[in-house]
Write a structure and sequence with these properties.
Blueprint lengths: L1 H14 L6 H16 L9 H19 L7 E6 L1 E6 L9 H13 L3 H8 L3 H5 L7 H15 L4 H13 L6 H20 L2 H19 L14 H12 L13 H5 L10
Antiparallel strand pairs: 1-2
Helix pairs in contact: 1-2, 2-3, 3-4, 4-5, 4-11, 5-7, 7-8, 9-10, 9-11
Protein backbone atom coordinates (compact mmCIF):
# COMPACT_ATOMS: atom_id res chain seq x y z
CA UNK A 1 0.00 0.00 0.00
CA UNK A 2 2.88 2.35 0.75
CA UNK A 3 4.39 1.69 -2.67
CA UNK A 4 1.01 2.25 -4.36
CA UNK A 5 0.34 5.56 -2.60
CA UNK A 6 3.90 6.74 -3.12
CA UNK A 7 3.80 5.98 -6.85
CA UNK A 8 0.44 7.70 -7.43
CA UNK A 9 1.07 10.87 -5.38
CA UNK A 10 3.07 12.74 -8.07
CA UNK A 11 0.19 12.24 -10.52
CA UNK A 12 -2.22 13.97 -8.16
CA UNK A 13 0.28 16.76 -7.55
CA UNK A 14 0.44 17.29 -11.33
CA UNK A 15 -3.36 17.44 -11.40
CA UNK A 16 -3.35 20.40 -8.99
CA UNK A 17 -2.17 22.66 -11.83
CA UNK A 18 -5.45 21.93 -13.62
CA UNK A 19 -7.79 22.00 -10.65
CA UNK A 20 -7.01 23.25 -7.15
CA UNK A 21 -9.59 20.84 -5.72
CA UNK A 22 -7.03 18.08 -6.32
CA UNK A 23 -5.23 19.55 -3.31
CA UNK A 24 -7.70 17.70 -1.08
CA UNK A 25 -6.57 14.40 -2.61
CA UNK A 26 -2.90 15.31 -2.26
CA UNK A 27 -3.51 16.23 1.38
CA UNK A 28 -5.39 13.02 2.17
CA UNK A 29 -2.96 10.74 0.33
CA UNK A 30 0.25 12.26 1.64
CA UNK A 31 -1.07 12.30 5.20
CA UNK A 32 -2.17 8.68 4.82
CA UNK A 33 1.23 7.78 3.38
CA UNK A 34 3.03 9.38 6.33
CA UNK A 35 0.78 7.46 8.73
CA UNK A 36 1.33 4.15 6.92
CA UNK A 37 5.08 4.61 7.11
CA UNK A 38 4.85 4.71 10.92
CA UNK A 39 3.66 1.09 10.99
CA UNK A 40 7.11 -0.36 10.22
CA UNK A 41 8.82 2.78 11.57
CA UNK A 42 6.86 3.98 14.65
CA UNK A 43 9.41 6.65 15.62
CA UNK A 44 9.38 8.16 12.08
CA UNK A 45 13.14 7.87 11.89
CA UNK A 46 12.89 7.49 8.11
CA UNK A 47 12.99 10.96 6.55
CA UNK A 48 10.42 9.82 3.96
CA UNK A 49 7.74 10.08 6.66
CA UNK A 50 8.75 13.70 7.22
CA UNK A 51 8.74 14.33 3.45
CA UNK A 52 5.16 13.09 3.21
CA UNK A 53 4.11 15.17 6.20
CA UNK A 54 5.63 18.26 4.59
CA UNK A 55 3.72 17.56 1.37
CA UNK A 56 0.50 17.20 3.38
CA UNK A 57 1.24 20.49 5.13
CA UNK A 58 1.88 22.24 1.82
CA UNK A 59 -1.36 20.90 0.29
CA UNK A 60 -3.43 21.79 3.35
CA UNK A 61 -2.19 25.36 3.53
CA UNK A 62 -2.47 25.74 -0.27
CA UNK A 63 -6.21 25.09 0.03
CA UNK A 64 -6.48 28.43 1.80
CA UNK A 65 -3.88 30.24 -0.30
CA UNK A 66 -5.71 29.59 -3.58
CA UNK A 67 -8.78 31.56 -2.51
CA UNK A 68 -6.87 34.74 -3.41
CA UNK A 69 -8.93 35.49 -6.50
CA UNK A 70 -7.21 38.80 -7.19
CA UNK A 71 -5.18 36.77 -9.69
CA UNK A 72 -6.04 33.85 -11.95
CA UNK A 73 -3.36 31.67 -10.42
CA UNK A 74 -0.66 31.60 -7.76
CA UNK A 75 2.76 30.00 -7.50
CA UNK A 76 2.92 27.57 -4.61
CA UNK A 77 5.06 24.62 -3.60
CA UNK A 78 3.29 21.31 -3.10
CA UNK A 79 5.94 18.68 -3.55
CA UNK A 80 7.32 20.87 -6.33
CA UNK A 81 6.76 24.42 -7.53
CA UNK A 82 3.29 24.67 -9.08
CA UNK A 83 1.15 27.24 -10.84
CA UNK A 84 -2.26 26.68 -9.23
CA UNK A 85 -5.51 28.25 -10.47
CA UNK A 86 -7.30 30.30 -7.83
CA UNK A 87 -10.83 29.44 -6.75
CA UNK A 88 -13.64 30.99 -4.68
CA UNK A 89 -14.18 29.64 -1.15
CA UNK A 90 -16.18 26.44 -0.92
CA UNK A 91 -16.41 23.11 0.89
CA UNK A 92 -12.70 22.53 0.39
CA UNK A 93 -12.11 25.39 2.86
CA UNK A 94 -14.03 23.81 5.74
CA UNK A 95 -12.91 24.46 9.31
CA UNK A 96 -11.82 20.84 9.77
CA UNK A 97 -9.27 21.22 7.01
CA UNK A 98 -8.10 24.51 8.51
CA UNK A 99 -7.41 22.66 11.76
CA UNK A 100 -5.50 19.95 9.89
CA UNK A 101 -3.47 22.60 8.06
CA UNK A 102 -2.68 24.26 11.38
CA UNK A 103 -1.64 21.06 13.16
CA UNK A 104 0.64 20.18 10.24
CA UNK A 105 2.19 23.66 10.16
CA UNK A 106 2.89 23.43 13.90
CA UNK A 107 4.52 20.01 13.59
CA UNK A 108 6.60 21.22 10.61
CA UNK A 109 7.60 24.35 12.58
CA UNK A 110 6.27 26.66 9.83
CA UNK A 111 5.70 29.96 11.65
CA UNK A 112 5.11 31.98 8.48
CA UNK A 113 2.49 29.51 7.31
CA UNK A 114 0.78 29.66 10.69
CA UNK A 115 0.62 33.44 10.39
CA UNK A 116 -1.06 33.09 6.98
CA UNK A 117 -3.57 30.55 8.33
CA UNK A 118 -4.31 32.83 11.28
CA UNK A 119 -5.34 35.49 8.76
CA UNK A 120 -7.92 33.37 6.91
CA UNK A 121 -11.22 35.31 7.23
CA UNK A 122 -14.15 33.69 9.02
CA UNK A 123 -16.36 34.14 5.95
CA UNK A 124 -14.07 31.81 4.03
CA UNK A 125 -14.72 29.05 6.55
CA UNK A 126 -18.43 29.83 6.66
CA UNK A 127 -18.60 29.44 2.88
CA UNK A 128 -18.03 25.70 3.32
CA UNK A 129 -21.48 25.41 4.94
CA UNK A 130 -21.01 21.80 6.05
CA UNK A 131 -23.19 21.95 9.16
CA UNK A 132 -20.54 22.16 11.86
CA UNK A 133 -21.52 22.96 15.41
CA UNK A 134 -20.71 26.52 16.48
CA UNK A 135 -17.68 25.43 18.49
CA UNK A 136 -15.71 24.72 15.31
CA UNK A 137 -15.54 28.34 14.17
CA UNK A 138 -15.05 29.44 17.76
CA UNK A 139 -12.10 27.04 18.11
CA UNK A 140 -10.59 28.33 14.87
CA UNK A 141 -11.01 31.91 16.10
CA UNK A 142 -9.29 31.02 19.38
CA UNK A 143 -6.35 29.42 17.59
CA UNK A 144 -6.05 32.29 15.13
CA UNK A 145 -5.94 34.71 18.05
CA UNK A 146 -3.30 32.56 19.73
CA UNK A 147 -1.04 32.48 16.68
CA UNK A 148 -1.51 36.20 16.05
CA UNK A 149 -0.89 37.08 19.71
CA UNK A 150 -4.22 38.87 19.47
CA UNK A 151 -6.40 40.29 22.23
CA UNK A 152 -9.18 38.60 24.23
CA UNK A 153 -7.67 35.13 23.97
CA UNK A 154 -8.93 34.08 27.42
CA UNK A 155 -12.49 35.16 26.63
CA UNK A 156 -12.44 33.41 23.26
CA UNK A 157 -11.05 30.25 24.80
CA UNK A 158 -13.79 30.23 27.45
CA UNK A 159 -16.46 30.77 24.77
CA UNK A 160 -15.07 27.85 22.76
CA UNK A 161 -15.19 25.46 25.71
CA UNK A 162 -18.72 26.60 26.51
CA UNK A 163 -19.85 26.04 22.92
CA UNK A 164 -18.31 22.55 22.87
CA UNK A 165 -20.48 21.66 25.84
CA UNK A 166 -23.53 22.74 23.83
CA UNK A 167 -22.61 20.84 20.64
CA UNK A 168 -25.73 19.27 19.17
CA UNK A 169 -24.52 17.84 15.84
CA UNK A 170 -21.26 16.26 17.01
CA UNK A 171 -21.47 12.82 18.65
CA UNK A 172 -20.49 13.02 22.30
CA UNK A 173 -17.93 10.29 21.72
CA UNK A 174 -16.07 12.52 19.27
CA UNK A 175 -16.27 15.50 21.59
CA UNK A 176 -14.88 13.52 24.51
CA UNK A 177 -12.19 11.58 22.68
CA UNK A 178 -10.99 13.88 19.90
CA UNK A 179 -12.38 17.42 20.10
CA UNK A 180 -11.95 18.45 23.72
CA UNK A 181 -8.48 17.00 24.52
CA UNK A 182 -6.50 19.45 22.30
CA UNK A 183 -8.37 22.34 23.91
CA UNK A 184 -7.41 21.11 27.37
CA UNK A 185 -3.81 20.72 26.20
CA UNK A 186 -3.70 24.27 24.87
CA UNK A 187 -5.01 25.52 28.21
CA UNK A 188 -2.04 23.93 29.99
CA UNK A 189 0.35 25.31 27.35
CA UNK A 190 -0.98 28.79 28.04
CA UNK A 191 -0.55 28.20 31.78
CA UNK A 192 2.97 26.78 31.27
CA UNK A 193 1.87 23.94 33.56
CA UNK A 194 4.19 21.04 32.74
CA UNK A 195 2.72 18.52 35.18
CA UNK A 196 -0.87 19.03 34.10
CA UNK A 197 0.13 19.17 30.45
CA UNK A 198 1.78 15.76 30.62
CA UNK A 199 -1.15 14.31 32.55
CA UNK A 200 -3.54 15.72 29.99
CA UNK A 201 -1.41 14.47 27.10
CA UNK A 202 -1.34 10.95 28.49
CA UNK A 203 -5.14 11.07 28.86
CA UNK A 204 -5.59 12.51 25.35
CA UNK A 205 -3.56 9.69 23.83
CA UNK A 206 -5.53 7.07 25.74
CA UNK A 207 -8.78 8.59 24.48
CA UNK A 208 -7.29 8.64 20.97
CA UNK A 209 -6.44 4.94 21.33
CA UNK A 210 -9.94 4.13 22.57
CA UNK A 211 -11.50 5.88 19.58
CA UNK A 212 -9.29 4.37 16.89
CA UNK A 213 -9.17 0.82 18.30
CA UNK A 214 -12.94 0.29 18.24
CA UNK A 215 -15.86 0.52 15.84
CA UNK A 216 -14.02 -0.96 12.86
CA UNK A 217 -11.47 1.88 12.91
CA UNK A 218 -8.55 -0.31 13.93
CA UNK A 219 -6.85 -0.26 10.51
CA UNK A 220 -7.76 3.30 9.56
CA UNK A 221 -4.50 5.24 9.00
CA UNK A 222 -6.22 8.41 10.26
CA UNK A 223 -5.65 7.06 13.75
CA UNK A 224 -2.01 6.04 13.42
CA UNK A 225 -0.71 9.51 14.39
CA UNK A 226 -2.47 11.66 17.00
CA UNK A 227 -1.99 14.81 14.95
CA UNK A 228 -3.67 17.39 17.21
CA UNK A 229 -2.04 16.14 20.45
CA UNK A 230 1.28 15.95 18.58
CA UNK A 231 0.91 19.59 17.54
CA UNK A 232 0.09 20.59 21.11
CA UNK A 233 3.15 18.71 22.35
CA UNK A 234 5.30 20.66 19.88
CA UNK A 235 3.77 23.92 21.15
CA UNK A 236 4.44 22.80 24.73
CA UNK A 237 8.10 22.25 23.94
CA UNK A 238 8.28 25.73 22.40
CA UNK A 239 7.26 27.30 25.71
CA UNK A 240 9.71 25.21 27.71
CA UNK A 241 7.52 22.31 28.82
CA UNK A 242 9.36 18.99 28.75
CA UNK A 243 7.14 16.36 27.13
CA UNK A 244 7.55 13.22 29.21
CA UNK A 245 4.91 11.07 27.52
CA UNK A 246 6.08 8.49 24.99
CA UNK A 247 3.63 6.88 22.60
CA UNK A 248 3.47 5.31 19.15
CA UNK A 249 0.88 8.00 18.41
CA UNK A 250 3.57 10.66 18.93
CA UNK A 251 6.41 9.58 16.62
CA UNK A 252 9.67 10.56 18.31
CA UNK A 253 11.32 12.16 15.29
CA UNK A 254 8.24 14.24 14.48
CA UNK A 255 7.96 15.46 18.06
CA UNK A 256 11.63 16.39 18.26
CA UNK A 257 11.65 18.10 14.87
CA UNK A 258 14.73 16.10 13.95
CA UNK A 259 14.10 16.53 10.22
CA UNK A 260 13.18 20.23 10.24
CA UNK A 261 15.09 21.92 7.43
CA UNK A 262 15.88 18.62 5.73
CA UNK A 263 13.09 18.99 3.16
CA UNK A 264 12.52 22.34 1.38
CA UNK A 265 9.03 23.59 2.23
CA UNK A 266 8.61 26.56 -0.11
Amino acid sequence: MIAEFSASLPKFIDLVERTPLALTTVLDRSLTLAALRTVPDPTAKDVLTWDDLVTAMQAASALFAVIDTSAESIEYTVGRRLRIPTTPPGQHNRAGRWLTATWLAVVCRERQRLTALASVPEEVLRAADVGYDAYMLSWVDTLQTFFRNGPDLDAKFAATVESVNRAANTPQELVTRLIYPPMELLYHVLDRDADRFNESLERALELHRQHWSTGGRETNPDGFIALAPLAMAVLAQEVGIEVLVESEYLPKYLLSGAWVGETPTS
